Prior knowledge:
Largest sheet: 4 strands, mixed
Number of strands: 12
Number of domains: 3
Strand order of the largest sheet: 4-5-7-6
Structural class: alpha+beta
Shape: elongated
Number of helices: 11
Strand content: 15-25%
Distance between the termini: 63 Å
Amino acid sequence: xxxxxxxxxxxxxxxxxxxxxxxxxxxxxxxxxxxxxxxxxxxxxxxxxxxxxxxxxxxxxxxxxxxxxxxxxxxxxxxxxxxxxxxxxxxxxxxxxxxxxxxxxxxxxxxxxxxxxxxxxxxxxxxxxxxxxxxxxxxxxxxxxxxxxxxxxxxxxxxxxxxxxxxxxxxxxxxxxxxxxxxxxxxxxxxxxxxxxxxxxxxxxxxxxxxxxxxxxxxxxxxxxxxxxxxxxxxxxxxxxxxxxxxxxxxxxxxxxxxxxxxxxxxxxxxxxxxxxxxxxxxxxxxxxx
Length: 290
């Protein structure tokens, strides 16, 4: 046990000075000289002052002074430590992953965390953690530093896997139109590699590839003047052509946000019934008109 005894109202500053951005109840008990079961009661005033925030059972995060009005530090500062504490593999996905790569141009406080076990969604400060139950080991991911001077890493889906995730569950990311906007931004930023897309395609249902191929091709046409390195989608189309693929709709009618187009045109290249006209955000990085 440490010889140091820290007053509860000084605990956050003490931890931050030592670079401890995520602590267990046992660590708090050691510093406060109380039993672990009494940590929550001891930290009640610090919690009320937004100096310490409980992020899950028996785990706490100290809040830097500039962030105390917001109630918590940025989620990415401690997400990796939080998931290690929960003993769960994970990755940051969907719209939050796109934002991590710099292609989200709206303020977005929802973070979709893909993990195999069920967890209760929660709000920490101004961040909303939404857990998506799925095996994260089946999706290509990469460990990246969070940047902005913080010594922390985060597991995030690769840009290509992010594109497939966005298409597979567009409702998690603001709908198919906003997904198209994000994919357009990925194209203009040069984030997507055709070989990687073909590799990742084997990990998703064929219907996701059909929709992704169509959206990529449409957005490529919209943004051809802004894309420095054009993406040849022919290898993706060849995957469709080489297999017996059934015709599907671009979106489910109930999710299209408009009356279904009748008669619905068929895009033979992607074996896709185009029942929704894509309306990407005109303020995306590639669609801004000077």
